[in-house]
Specification:
The chain is an alpha+beta fold. The chain has one domain. 34% of the residues lie in helices and 14% in strands. It contains two helices and two strands; from the N terminus they run H-E-H-E. The chain has a two-stranded parallel ribbon. Strand 1, helix 2 and strand 2 form a beta-alpha-beta unit. The termini are far apart.
Length: 59
């Protein structure tokens, strides 16, 4: 885990900001990583999504 991640998540929580992890991989795998780093109390949830070309298009 990079330096400052925990502090950033804690600061977001103190400001009432819900943090979600969005992943293309398996949500369960990310939940396990979050728990392994002791961050599960700082992250609201994990969602899976597939990248679509349209998400990155400029309008």
């Amino acid at each position: 885990m990079l330096p400052g991640v925990r502090e950033g998540l804690e600061a977001a929580g103190h400001e009432g900001i819900e943090v979600w992890v969005l992943t293309e991989g398996a949500a369960g795998r990310q939940r396990a990583r979050i728990a392994a780093h002791g961050l599960d109390g700082l992250i609201r949830g994990v969602a899976e999504a597939t990248k679509e070309k349209e998400q990155f298009a400029r309008h």
